[in-house]
Amino acid sequence: MDFATPPTRMAAEPLLSIRNLHTYFAQDEGIVKAVDGVSLEMNERATLGIVGESGCGKSVTARSILRIVDRPGRIVDGEIWFRRPGANGGAGNSAIDLAKLDADGTEMRSIRGAEIALIFQEPMSSFSPVHSIGNQIVEAILLHQDVDRRGARDRAIDMLRRVGVSSPDQRVDQLAHQLSGGLRQRAMIAMALSCSPTLLIADEPTTALDVTTQTQILELMRQLQQEDGMAIMLITHDLGVIAEMATDVAVMYLGRVVEQAPVDAIFHAPKHPYTRALLRSIPRMRARSRERLTPIAGSVPHPYDRPTGCPFHPRCPDFIAGTCDRQTPVPRPVGERHTVSCFLYE
Amino acid sequence: MSVVREPRSAAAHSSLLRVAGLRKLFPIRKGFLKRTVGYVRAVDGIDFHIDEGETLGLVGESGCGKTTTARCILRAIDPTGGEISMRLADGSVVDLAKLGEPELRAIRREMQMIFQDPFTSLNPRMTLLDLVGEPLLVHGMKSRREREERVADLLRRVGLRPEYMRRFPHAFSGGERQRIGIARALALQPRLVVADEPVSALDVSVQAQILNLLFDLQEEFRLTYLFVAHDLSVVRYISSRVAVMYVGGIVELGETEEIFTAPKHPYTAALLSAVPEPDPRTRGKRIVLQGEVANPAAPPSGCYFHPRCPHAVEVCRTQTPVFQEISPGHLVGCHRAHELRLAGVE
Lengths: 346, 346
Hints:
The complex is a heterodimer of chains A (346) and B (346). Chain A is α/β, with parallel strands linked by helices. In chain A, 29% of the residues lie in helices and 23% in strands.
């Protein structure tokens, strides 16, 4: 892959194109390279699943896109090209590099929450406990849309109805703690979609929920995507959720995308040793009971203690001495929309 | 519920643990005088047994009473009613529910617990030697040298290096900490180990390591596990038999293979179908349950599952189903267990 120039104008230009993104956290103990050279692309209306274990940088990548990385985190390098619907009705689409914008400036503020919306993992802590959920949705609508308070409230009730909240005209005045986990997540989705975003980032949207509630929420997200046509970036550690929802998948490990491919290729023709090992290590519903699993040796290294070269080399079964521990692999195309960062494919 | 309650003489031959009619109610107190206005029926009359050397998986969604059941058995909390008969190493059978603290103290070495969160369950100010050696000291191993030898041996068994004995837990990763917790639980050579969500806080690649370890230790020490978990694929891997809980009661219990491939309770079937498979080719065959888990303080009439059950008929609304044996070793609490043809995991 070549990152040297801004995206060339092609017929199907991606909605989002991240190039060589680096987001670092400078701590007293050293620099945590949370995102260390992430490159990925996603198309309009697609669902890109981002999968990885704790500390792989999947959430920081999402926060970098929205420019809400907590201090002392900072984007130190890279580009985040986001295609905005043009002012003249979409014909003059223009891509903008979010990484270059002022995080608190008007332009970023008009994108954040309106064109790109976010759903968090924990709906309890992402709503204010002292304002009704209705008022919080109304506030989001008033910020981005040209409606009065009454119109915004009607729109909030409409949205709650669309996400399957029963008696929305009463629920709209309730506080977050009066709702169950599943309902709170529905309200969260209502708020995120109230301004019709073109990109919805969902960071572990069902991890805190029970499995039968998870099914309901995933079903709802799929239905809303069909109706509204937004693209979804779905961040999760659960390969089952990825297989269920995603059209494309990016597998991350220690701040890098090690493999990106259409969902079927990731699960049925994985190329990177980490993707393969991950798929082998998870217990499956279809497996016979009491059958041994194949774990990945070792554990994810501490962020201050990053391995040199390919970050996966100390745990890799196909490790090539002298290469993998010295040089860092870059993404290479190995198939249709399929890229891998691994020396096995060079 | 007479089916499971065999005479105790028969039980004494095979079962290590036999739970009969176990109940735990938590009072709801309100007002200035803290008067009891109702009860949360966390566990409401459950029966099961665990044979020596086997693993019983206890599954269910949050609030179904699985953790309360585990805590009652260990007498971490006092049950409201019922019997918990455990056969001790010397062959005698005691009812744990009736014992007082002094008698329990001696018996506690035969039953130990592995906790969910390896980050909060280990005292950060204690070294591995103190952590793993503490139960030995409490149960009378006074010689420090002897303790050190035993701790070294235990650490080796769980795959940690004995040289790390003087280190503190913060120096270890999540998976390694869970190994420390397991070593501590095994220090007194217990016969019954209660594991409450032992892998759900771990990264997927590390989960497999811990599951394999639990498996090996069981073979080596002939341990009996009560394995509490919400993740059905993990339960399938580890359990010989499975009990499914819903709102304080067991709705289905049987051999793991049978529960997974031929479930008889609609809730089990829904739970199984809700787990997203890590394979995009199996998409879209989900049973989406409507509504939410019933409130254990005000459960619905009849079968607690009827408001969400796709197969509910009139009798389900009015009468509580009997938990009965429908084939050898397979018990179900459903009015329609004989007529329904439910799909399991292929």
